[in-house]
C-alpha cells in the first residue's frame, strides 16, 4: 500500500535564479525521510515540487514509478501539513477537518467516518465543536495533521510543522508524529532545520545545502560518518 518517490535530476529555477541543482533521491515505501538543512537551502521548494504546488524546472519526479511532473496537486495522493496557523479561525474543529472533503464532494456519512477516525488517532474527539482560538498550540497542530489524515493520502509531507511550538510541546509532538507514522505506515517526508528533530525522527536523513544534497543516510551513520565538514558541523558529530 505504501508508496515510493523517485527524484531524478530535479532542478528549480526562480526567474533566472537556480535554487535546486539536480537532486537525485530514492524514497522507499513507508519510509520516514527528513530533509534537513539551514534556512534557504531549498527544503520547502523541494517539498512543494513533490506536492505539485510548485512547477518542476527540470528532471523527473515519479511516484510508484509514474511520472508526476504534469500531474496536478490534487491528483498526486499527497497531503501536506504546515504550521498550525493555517487553520480556518471561524470554523469549528469538525468543520476544519471536514471542509476539504466537503469541497471535494465527499458524502456526509463518509466525511463523518473519516473525521471520527482522525479524531480518534489524534485524541481530539472532545474538541470537535471548538474554534481554533479555544485550542492550545499542540491541539491546533493535531487539527492541522488531522486535516491531512482525513484525505487518506498515499504520502504525507510536513513542512516545519512544529516551528511555532515551544520546546516542550515540540518534543511531545515529535513523538506523536512518529507514532502516527507507525500506525498508518505511509511514506512521509518531514522538513526541518532542527538537527535534533532530524536525528530522532528519521529513518533516512537527507542533508541539504544551497540546493544540493550533501549526504543521505540513516541518522547514526551520518552522525558517525559525515561525508564532509558541513554535515559534521550541522549534525554536531564529534571531532
Ligand atoms: P528553505 O525551505 O530550506 O528555507 P526555500 O525552499 O524556501 O528554503 O528557499 C530556497 C531558495 O529559493 C531561497 O534562496 C529562497 O530565497 C528562494 N525562493 C523560495 N521561494 C521563492 C520564490 N517564490 N521566488 C523566488 N525565490 C524563491
Ligand atoms: Mg522552508
UniProtKB/TrEMBL annotation:
<comment type="similarity">
    <text>Belongs to the ABC transporter superfamily.</text>
</comment>
<dbReference type="GO" id="GO:1990060">
    <property type="term" value="C:maltose transport complex"/>
</dbReference>
<protein>
    <submittedName>
        <fullName>Multiple sugar transport system ATP-binding protein</fullName>
        <ecNumber>3.6.3.-</ecNumber>
    </submittedName>
</protein>
<dbReference type="GO" id="GO:0005524">
    <property type="term" value="F:ATP binding"/>
</dbReference>
<keyword id="KW-0762">Sugar transport</keyword>
<keyword id="KW-0547">Nucleotide-binding</keyword>
<feature type="domain" description="ABC transporter">
    <location>
        <begin position="5"/>
        <end position="235"/>
    </location>
</feature>
<dbReference type="GO" id="GO:0016887">
    <property type="term" value="F:ATP hydrolysis activity"/>
</dbReference>
<dbReference type="GO" id="GO:0055052">
    <property type="term" value="C:ATP-binding cassette (ABC) transporter complex, substrate-binding subunit-containing"/>
</dbReference>
<keyword id="KW-0813">Transport</keyword>
<keyword id="KW-0378">Hydrolase</keyword>
<dbReference type="GO" id="GO:0015423">
    <property type="term" value="F:ABC-type maltose transporter activity"/>
</dbReference>
<keyword id="KW-0067">ATP-binding</keyword>
Amino acid at each position: 500500500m505504501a508508496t515510493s518517490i523517485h527524484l531524478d535530476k530535479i532542478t528549480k529555477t526562480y526567474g533566472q535564479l537556480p535554487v535546486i541543482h539536480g537532486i537525485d533521491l530514492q524514497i522507499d515505501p513507508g519510509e520516514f525521510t527528513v530533509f534537513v538543512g539551514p534556512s534557504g537551502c531549498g527544503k520547502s521548494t523541494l517539498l512543494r515540487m513533490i506536492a505539485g504546488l510548485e512547477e518542476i524546472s527540470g528532471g523527473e519526479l515519479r511516484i510508484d514509478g509514474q511520472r508526476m511532473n504534469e500531474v496536478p496537486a490534487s491528483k498526486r495522493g499527497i497531503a501536506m501539513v504546515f504550521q498550525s496557523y493555517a487553520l480556518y479561525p471561524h470554523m469549528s474543529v469538525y468543520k476544519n477537518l471536514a471542509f476539504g472533503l466537503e469541497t471535494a464532494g465527499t458524502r456526509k456519512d463518509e466525511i463523518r467516518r473519516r473525521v471520527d477516525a482522525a479524531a480518534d488517532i489524534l485524541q481530539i474527539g472532545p474538541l470537535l465543536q471548538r474554534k481554533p482560538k479555544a485550542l492550545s498550540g499542540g491541539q491546533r497542530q493535531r487539527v492541522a495533521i488531522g486535516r491531512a489524515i482525513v484525505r487518506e493520502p498515499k504520502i504525507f509531507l510536513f513542512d516545519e510543522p512544529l516551528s511555532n511550538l515551544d520546546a516542550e510541546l515540540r518534543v511531545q509532538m515529535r513523538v506523536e508524529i512518529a507514532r502516527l507514522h507507525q500506525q498508518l505506515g505511509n511514506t512521509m517526508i518531514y522538513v526541518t532545520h532542527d538537527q535534533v528533530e532530524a536525528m530522532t525522527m528519521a529513518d533516512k536523513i537527507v542533508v541539504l545545502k544551497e540546493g544540493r544534497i550533501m549526504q543521505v543516510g540513516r541518522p547514526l551513520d551520518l552522525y558517525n560518518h559525515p561525508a564532509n565538514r558541513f554535515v559534521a558541523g550541522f549534525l554536531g558529530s564529534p571531532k
